[in-house]
């Protein structure tokens, strides 16, 4: 077992630990055993204001003038440093978020790739020429469209992928020449602190990245309303995201919010592959993944076969200490969340659902739970569970299942298992989601494709190249030739 030692962290402005305007601290608690794993000095609104000031200054003095090759170098160097420290970061994710250590390594590996994608993209930000002579009177004119960094970004991130989701904002922001104020989730500030130090070591100029560790309800407003911020990029729950968007005025806003992702298995689909994939798809990091499989629709011809295989695989999952190598399922982020999810299971069972497996809770550990005989109005079906709970639901026809999958306020990503390419494309067209995977679960994500939801799942796209589009402004410059 890895020894726990206490990390002491504070907000960082201009690359330096801040002297707090008011003395306020918070403990970071391991969700698994309630040990204190870190102590944090909490920022106030005044501290957040200083962070914005610093980012604003650094944008005008350094970042917007920095050439692309230099921005790419910094990103590449950060990737190399992060890769070297994979184990250290994976361990911190296990301690602060309760993420199983193997999943933590996976997150670090993806974060390294995000940085490398951004290093590549930094050199590809290009403009275009406008065919001016297409308009009457446009002869002897040259028109060009150039892309410029947008300025200061406010990046607000959730607890579930504290490293990789922060990097989905920071890496494209720096690739484009912007500066950032980062506010990580209060439950997981340690990895963010380590990451900011890594950027500094890689040569990012002072003030280009400022860290504000504070309660969202206290420091959130200024990070969204201050006129020096040009863009707010938020990943988290729909309620907070919608509130931020209302306050952001004319600023650009990207919202990556929640979902209750559907996965569909047709009679002609590979049932074995679907069952195996959906074990991780529904239960990785205890289902606390925005694209976690929550609703599994199975065509009646293979329903029982799928359910039998699925339940037997789920029952093999090892639940326990996230720091141990063989652990598949660790704790939920807090006991409050585990109780909330357990209550939803109880409520569903009272209303007629049946437990195919799981359903028990001990502290923050909630058993991987498979429900059947559910109805569309149960919370476990129609709301985002963000917990290790999945429902398996039978269906008859293609048309019917598209309707069932779309019967949701969310629309992030979906999975479809079929061997019929025509059906696959028809269903992909019919699904109201930001992304669809064929013969893969909804939970698979690669960091270089456009990712983001429709409906209540959000607005805007991440995936480095696509995030850069939203983190730059285009400006037209015309020349009238003599
Ligand atoms: P959350 O409670 O909404 O918190 C997200 C961030 O918002 C945290 O940094 C939080 O700070 C901050 N915040 C809270 N209230 C705020 C306010 N009034 N003003 C400004 N910031 C505020 O979400 P979470 O529980 O950490 O994460 C789970 C949610 O994220 C789920 O709904 C999940 O689906 C979603 N998610 C979506 C994606 C995606 O890509 N679509 C990816 C991952 C997660 P504090 O921690 O200090 O409260």
Automatic annotation (TrEMBL):
InterPro entries: Ald_DH/histidinol_DH, Ald_DH_C, Ald_DH_N, Aldehyde_DH_dom, ALDH-related_metabolic_enz. One of its GO terms (molecular function) is lactaldehyde dehydrogenase (NAD+) activity. Coiled coil: none annotated. Keywords: Oxidoreductase. Residues 20-477 form the Aldehyde dehydrogenase domain. It comes from the Bacteria. The keyword Coiled coil does not apply. It catalyses: (2S)-3-sulfolactaldehyde + NAD(+) + H2O = (2S)-3-sulfolactate + NADH + 2 H(+). Its EC number is 1.2.1.97. Belongs to the aldehyde dehydrogenase family. Part of the sulfo-TAL (or sulfo-SFT) pathway, a D-sulfoquinovose degradation pathway that produces sulfolactate (SL). Catalyzes the oxidation of 3-sulfolactaldehyde (SLA) to sulfolactate (SL). This is 3-sulfolactaldehyde dehydrogenase. It comes from Peribacillus simplex.
